Amino acid sequence: MKPPGAPASGDPAARPRGERAQPSGPRRVRIEDLLGGGRELIIEHRNEEYRLRMTSNSKLILTK
Q1: 22-41 confidence digits (pLDDT tens)
Q2: Is the C-alpha dihedral spanning 63, 53, 30, 42 positive or negative?
Q3: pTM exceeds 0.85
């Protein structure tokens, strides 16, 4: 049990200074960061390769 007046675990004051709360949803990554300035990326999943490609119209295509 917490002492009276102690911040709740969800309270920003309960986190160490400089540490940010993690969002509860899925991790968000910008496509520019993911592709590293290129237009294509190979993703390895369960010893299989998948290719993520950005088209000339900035659409994304994922193929096996």
Answers
A1: 668 999 999 999 999 999 99
A2: positive
A3: no
